[in-house]
Automatic annotation (TrEMBL), chain A:
Gene3D superfamilies recorded: 3.40.50.2300
UniProt-recorded name of the protein: ABC transporter substrate-binding protein
Stretches assigned to the Leucine-binding protein domain: 25-387
Keywords, alphabetical: Signal
Pfam families given in the database record: Peripla_BP_6
Family the entry assigns: Belongs to the leucine-binding protein family.
Signal peptide: 1-21
Length: 427, 327
């Protein structure tokens, strides 16, 4: 009996673990808890792109991609547990969709030699590949987002923001505080007045913050929120009749779940994005054929095409392209994490390649290097149409202000290198 | 002068926010009064009630994901919508059924146990209900609209503008919440003080065994109290869900009720209201006056500091019963 039990347990464990020859890309997702509604959509997009490659192309370079999912509940401790549980299964790359988990994983991946890919989140200065050898955050980071938002406002105001008031409503956490230094620098450069309005997590109650905004009468509000903070803020903005077209969220404040609960009053709200929106892309025909029609889409495919689904899918596109590049460089299909890092460092995703994938103009062009792990930082704006219940792209991809950002990246990464005893690489 | 007017606006909004906190705290008080148990699951009850309300209103098929996964079907909705009033009534019935099941499956087996055992049981219940809500209705954020108005009150803005030269912001939803909370408290106080069942409820709270010995049905009282707490949770869920959508972070509103309970006392219905008002006004004024000097975002922690200050002088809370145990 005992032998049978051990044999059964072993069989169960082996069935649950990925085959060692496959490419393993763990999905550290969160489908439960306060941020589950956001995490679920992103995880579905991430899973579906790899499922599509497996079903349609037989994987990447002939290797099936395994995407074992581990629930973090957006909790840093659980995220670390997921990493520890999966790192010895042949895992190549992690994308935990949490700045808190990312901060904890950065020193670990350097020791374990795993790639950490954090598109649009995590530690901004990880863009500096000389210091952060194993971390990549292309196509854009938090500071890029802040700068692109200001560039958009400059365009809206004939290139002059002097005398304007801009309020930053932010999640009072490491994530939310990220853009402050950038915006302070940009305020100095362009002469606008910046006010900082922190919101404690989870952010359901924001009356004080929006009373302050109502009194201060800023011309524009920029928001760095996540989860319920977004819906509560957009609702409060509508309550005080703040003009929605002057309210811009970072990409993590720009999904359908952020605006739908507010109804028609959310009409006109804007948000940054570094990926396309909607389903007007050829790839969705393949997703329908290979996943939806065959019941193989993640969670039944109910989130296909949403903003966060698209972003999760885009993360999978970048990872799969890096895997392809790594296979090409190494001359083998079953690559190691070190080879994947090399693939990331020489990754180029051109507009032509995006069109081949079935996602024309879906993201900015990406060109990475040993030094630049963050790409160009380009982002664009989308605007919510409450009647049609859809996001519309309203600007082209715009480059951030590197004059302000580059010294900040250099300074922050140098400080990290010093405190961690890292000697920057020669690139 | 401007600062004084702004402070008055903050004060009024603090009062309104306090009522929203008190709505959550009321559920805790009811169950504590009847069973001496701190119900950890009260926040999740509000979430579960709101999820059920939206699900019924939108004609959503409960357990649709599970059914589809097992049977390979693609059902999502019954194809009808239910009017708000009827949906609220049906949800209240679901909460009564839930109270019955909680008594039958959890509480009945714990009669005479230490309060800490019952408290632990409510922790388990909270996790179970959160998972059940997820499986039944899905994890998506849902819009809750039962017809309550929301947004700035134009008349108050106009009147205050004429008086002070500055139009006050008062959310119409908060005005409704205040009126509903006042009705709810009046009904609960009357029930607890003047009805046979209300007195029986208080007897059970004092001593389970003694109440049983005089013929009070513990099962009935517990089902009744959990049903009322479930209804109060539904009201709180409607108010908070209307503000920011029905989503799983709704269960975290319980965190806002804790300082209210510490301040108002765990056994007093008026205490929950007064505690809520003090916490609401206190945290808003502190954020307005001191917040800008220390970086803001003070409300979460200041509510607890305020409650702790009161605890130093009145450990039983403002309206709580002073319990003296002789050894």
């Amino acid at each position: 009996m005992r032998t049978k039990l051990i044999a059964l347990t072993a069989a169960g464990l082996m069935a649950g673990a990925p085959a060692m020859a496959d490419l393993v890309v763990p999905n550290l997702s969160y489908r439960t808890g306060a941020y589950g509604a956001n995490g679920t959509q992103y995880a579905d997009g991430f899973n579906d792109y790899f499922a599509l490659l497996n079903e349609r192309d037989g994987g990447i370079g002939g290797e099936i991609v395994q995407v074992p999912e581990c629930e973090t509940a957006y909790n840093t401790e659980k995220g670390i547990e997921c990493y520890e549980e999966t790192k010895d299964t042949g895992a190549l790359v992690y994308n935990p969709l949490s700045t808190g988990i990312t901060y904890q994983l950065i020193p670990k991946v350097s020791v374990d030699k795993k790639v950490l890919y954090t598109p649009g989140y995590g530690r901004t200065s990880a863009k500096n590949g000389k210091v952060f050898e194993w971390v990549f955050n292309a196509p854009a980071n938090y500071w890029d987002g802040a700068s692109v938002a200001i560039k958009y406002l400059l365009d809206e105001n004939g290139g002059d923001l002097s005398g304007k008031k801009i309020a930053l409503v932010f999640h009072n956490s490491a994530y939310g505080k990220e853009p402050i230094r950038t915006l302070q620098g940009l305020a100095e450069k362009h002469g606008f007045e910046l006010s900082e309005v922190p919101v404690d997590a989870p952010g359901q109650e924001q009356k004080s913050q929006w009373l302050q905004i109502r009194r201060d009468k800023p011309d524009y509000v920029i928001m760095y929120g996540w989860g319920v903070m977004n819906q509560a803020a957009i609702q409060e903005a509508a309550n005080i009749r703040f003009p929605m077209e002057n309210f811009i969220g970072i990409w993590w404040s720009g999904s359908e779940v952020d605006v739908l609960p507010v109804g028609d009053k959310a009409n006109g709200y804007k948000a940054l994005t570094f990926n396309g929106v909607g389903m007007d892309y050829p790839i969705y025909e393949d997703i329908k054929t290979y996943l939806l029609d065959t019941d193989k889409a993640s969670q039944g495919g109910e989130h296909v095409g949403s903003a966060l689904y698209s972003r999760g899918m885009y993360a999978a596109v970048v990872i799969s392209e890096a895997i392809r590049k790594a296979q090409e460089l190494a001359g083998v299909s079953d690559i190691s994490p070190e080879q994947l890092r090399d693939g990331f460092e020489q990754l180029e995703i051109t507009p032509e390649r995006l069109t081949e994938i079935g996602l024309p103009d879906f993201g900015p062009e990406i060109r990475m290097s040993c030094e630049n792990h963050g790409g160009s930082g380009m982002a664009r704006l989308q605007q919510w149409d409450a009647a049609a219940k859809q996001w519309n792209l309203i600007s082209e991809f715009t480059e951030p202000d590197q004059e302000i950002l580059a010294p900040l990246i250099e300074e922050d990464s140098a400080a990290y290198a010093k405190e961690s005893g890292i000697t920057p690489r020669d690139c | 002068m401007d600062q004084l007017i702004y402070a008055a606006e903050v004060f009024l909004n603090g009062l309104m926010t306090g009522v929203m906190y008190a709505l959550v705290a009321l559920g805790f008080v009811l169950i504590f009064k009847a069973s001496g148990v701190f119900n950890y699951a009260q926040g999740v009850l509000a979430l579960f009630a709101a999820l059920t309300l939206v699900g019924i209103q939108q004609g959503q098929v409960p357990f649709a994901h599970l059914i589809n996964a097992v049977l390979g079907t693609h059902i999502e909705s019954f194809g009808w919508t239910v009017p708000a009033f009827l949906a609220v009534l049906l949800t209240a019935l679901v909460m009564i059924l839930l109270a019955f099941l909680i008594e039958k499956l959890v509480l009945q087996h714990l009669v005479g146990q230490e309060p800490i055992i019952l408290f632990m049981a409510t922790i388990g219940l909270a996790y179970f209900l959160e998972g059940l809500g997820d499986v039944m209705w899905g994890a998506d954020i849902k819009r809750l609209d039962v017809g309550l108005p929301q947004g700035i009150s134009d008349s108050i803005e106009t009147v205050t503008d004429q008086w002070f030269g500055y139009g006050f912001f008062i959310d119409r939803l908060d005005i409704w919440a205040t009126a509903i909370a006042a009705l709810l408290v009046a009904a609960l106080v009357a029930f607890s003080q003047f009805t046979k069942q209300g007195r029986a409820m208080r007897a059970v709270a004092d001593d389970h065994q003694a109440a049983l010995s005089v013929g009070i049905s513990l099962r009935f009282i517990w089902v009744m109290v959990w049903s009322i707490a479930g209804f109060v949770a539904l009201v709180a869920g409607i108010m908070w869900g209307t503000k920011s959508g029905v989503q799983f972070s709704l269960s975290l509103i319980a965190l806002k009720a804790l300082p209210v309970l510490m301040l108002g006392g765990f056994t007093s219905i008026p205490g929950a209201i007064v505690g809520g008002l003090i916490i609401g006004v206190g945290e808003k004024l502190f954020e307005f006056l001191i917040g800008p000097m220390i970086g803001g975002a003070t409300e979460n922690w200041f509510a607890y500091v305020l409650a702790l200050i009161f605890l130093v002088f009145r450990p039983q809370g403002l309206f709580g019963e002073r319990i003296i145990e002789r050894v």
